[in-house]
Amino acid sequence: MKTVAIVGVGLIGGSFALALRKAGFKGRIIGVSSPKTVEAALDAKVIDEGMRLERAVFEADLVYLSQPISRILTTLEAIDPYLREGALVTDAGSTKAEITGVAERCISRAQFLGGHPMAGKETRGVEESDPDLFAGRTYVLTPQGPEDMDTPAAQEFLEWIRRIGGVPVILNPEEHDQVVSWTSHLPQLASTALASALARRLGIEGSRRVAGPGLQDMTRLAQSSYEIWRDILATNGPQIERALDAYISELRDLRARLSDPEMSKEFEIGADFAARLRRKEGEDA
After folding, report:
1. pLDDT grade for 282, boundaries at 50, 70 and 90
2. DSSP 236
3. What residues form DSSP beta bridges with 112?
4. 276: CB partners within 8 A, 6+ apart
5. N or C: which end of the chain has fewer CB atoms below 10 A?
6. More confident residue, 283 or 48
7. Whole-number Å distance between alpha carbons of 50 and 40
8. What is the C-alpha end-to-end distance of the chain, expressed in Å?
């Protein structure tokens, strides 16, 4: 891998570029973004040069799509005529089934391998790029079939994920979308709903006067941008609805049992899960 094209040089794309450099990548990193973003990325030495999409794709051995989901879909529909044979196209989208389906239909000159780094911040932009963003974080890959992981390009990309500190997990696209509806999308909506309820009923002054760190923890995700989440909700709606229905059912059950001594079991189950979630892999054994 000698040349990487980062299409969408924001937080994730910029962090991936910096992480590659820190891990020892010596090749070229091309950025495709708005002129303002490219200028900022060049000033911060996140990328080596900026190019138009078609030229960057033609130059690249790895095409890394780190745009909002709707833009990733549009890009996948446009880039195939410009791709190098033997190149690898991957993405960092938060849902996978629709992206993988479009790639399967539109990408023929190169290999597509879906990806989703489970890393990020509430803030956005290339200025927030962090070379350690992926360190210790799950990095999901969603091949269309097991054989997709056996190609030289996929194996090299997998090795770079490990070098930047990512922890690879292989799932099929549908399984990925089902799991993240629980582990990522539901927490976001729960945080947004809690912050909205407080804003409407207590207001900021009423909440702030008696708020502890627990409220800040619970509302941290509510700072996330709807511009990003709009596409996630649109492309994983059925799975998110199932997760919300189950969560609402749990809340209703808790409401009905507020004075029930058996409520202690719910606290025990929740506390045990939260503690195990925070342990390193293998410590549960």
Report:
1. low
2. S
3. 89
4. 284
5. C
6. 48
7. 11
8. 39
pLDDT digits (tens, 9 = 90+) for 169-195: 999 999 999 999 999 999 999 999 999
Q: Which amino acid is at 96?
A: K
12-55 pLDDT, tens digit each: 999 999 999 999 999 999 999 999 999 999 999 999 999 999 99
Coil, strand or helix at 138? strand
The Cα–Cα gap between 120 and 129 comes to 10
Q: Find where tokens 């200025």 sit.
A: 127
Structure tokens at 170: 């292989």
Looking only at the bridges linking them, the beta strands covering 88-91 and 62-65 are parallel
Q: Are 223 and 188 spatial neighbours (Cβ–Cβ below 8 Å)?
A: no
Set out the domains of the chain in order of their start, with CATH numbers: 3-171 (3.40.50.720), 175-278 (1.10.3660.10)
Q: Tokens 């909506």 correspond to what residue?
A: 189
Query: Both tokens of residue 279?
Result: 């342990």
What radius of gyration, in Å, describes the C-alpha atoms of the chain? 21
In degrees, rounded to 5, the angle at the alpha carbon of residue 37 between the alpha carbons of residues 34 and 40 is 150
- Say how many C-beta atoms besides its own lie within 10 A of residue 183's C-beta: 12
Which residue type, as a one-letter code, is found at position 41? A
Q: DSSP for the chain?
A: --EEEEES-SHHHHHHHHHHHHTT--SEEEEES-HHHHHHHHHTTS-SEE--HHHHHHH-SEEEE-S-HHHHHHHHHH-GGGPPTT-EEEE--S--HHHHHHHHHH--SSEEEEEEE----SS-SGGG--TTTTTT-EEEEE-SSGGGGGSHHHHHHHHHHHHTT-EEEE--HHHHHHHHIIIIIHHHHHHHHHHHHHHHHTHHHHHHTT--HHHHHHHGGGGS-HHHHHHHHHHSHHHHHHHHHHHHHHHHHHHHTTT-TTHHHHHHHHHHHHHHHHSPTTTT-
Closest CA to 73 of 7, 142, 16: 7
